[in-house]
Amino acid sequence: MESGKATIQYKYLYGYRRGTDDKPEIIPEEAEVVRWIYERYLAGASTRMLRDELHEQGVIYAEKSPQWTLPHIKSILRNEKYCGDVLMQKTFQQDVINRKVIKNTGQLPMYLIENHHEGIVSREKYNAVQAEMARRKAAKSPSKRASTGLSAYTSRYALSDRLVCGECGTLYRRCTWTRPDGKRIVWRCVSRLDYPYHLDGQLCAIYPAADIIAMGEAATAHKLYHTTYANHLFAWVRRCDTLEDVAAITYGSALPDDLAANMTAILEAASNA
């Protein structure tokens, strides 16, 4: 990105060439292949199936590199340029000395330019593919240790595979950011890790690990309180002699003194554990 202008590498952008206005111009015959890939993927085909079918049909990727690969397919499915948008600052130079370019995974803001050029597929279809890719990614999260049914992350972090993103519906995972001022632990959704362009064109929220811990503790305390209260209500109900006495007990009722004191003792013991 230079002076707010989108830099596009046409060498790796199947279906487009540089137009006279310096913007992507559609290559009709390649665009048909792109549309076919989107349609087949939404119909349930895997990226491996798409690659094999393109080989069988004799479709070449490029003159100097005729064979289709899985990265080619995934790039077409993930790249927002195919719906006419450009997401700027996907990468950046880590420092000006060695000029090393690294992937932007949240260290710097990214800027979305909508309707930058003519899209090959509609934004609705592109968004549908991103949602399907995120769904398939999330579905693969459980490890091959089928006997436990737990994911590979569960044994490492208590909240892995238990937090769900409210924006796109995929799982949150723990990540470590390395910054000039040190490392920072954050939680972010699976689809943000792999597909930074979301259904509404916005990035999903990132939460510092401290916030996740605080939310987890608050949720645990909330559940503990209400579970303990419900158990004491049941103990109260078992004391009742008539149906009228039972009917008088509702959720939120003040407990008898002895049950209230017992509940308080349990909650205090749990908070000090």
Short descriptors:
273 residues; alpha+beta; Hect, E3 ligase catalytic domain fold; 3-stranded antiparallel beta sheet; two-stranded antiparallel sheet; 13% strand
Structure description:
With 273 residues, the chain is of the alpha+beta class. It contains 8 helices and 9 strands. It has helices at residues 28-42, 47-56, 70-78, 123-139, 190-194, 209-239, 243-247, 257-271; strands at 16-18, 24-26, 86-88, 91-93, 101-103, 111-113, 172-179, 182-189, 207-208. It has a 3-stranded antiparallel sheet. The protein has a two-stranded antiparallel ribbon with strand order 1-2. A hairpin with a 2-residue loop joins strand 7 and strand 8 (182-189). The model is unreliable at 142-155 (pLDDT under 50).
Summing up helix and strand content along with how strands pair, one would put the structural category as alpha+beta
Helix-strand sequence: EEHHHEEEEHEEHEHHH
The helix count comes to 8
Percent helix among the residues?
25-40%
Question: Whole-number radius of gyration?
Answer: 27 Å
What sort of overall outline do the alpha carbons produce when their principal axes are compared?
elongated
> How many structural domains does the protein architecture include?
3
**CATH fold naming of the largest domain:** Hect, E3 ligase catalytic domain fold
Strand content: 5-15%
Name of the top-level CATH class of the largest domain: Alpha Beta
For the residues shown, what is the average pLDDT? Answer: 81
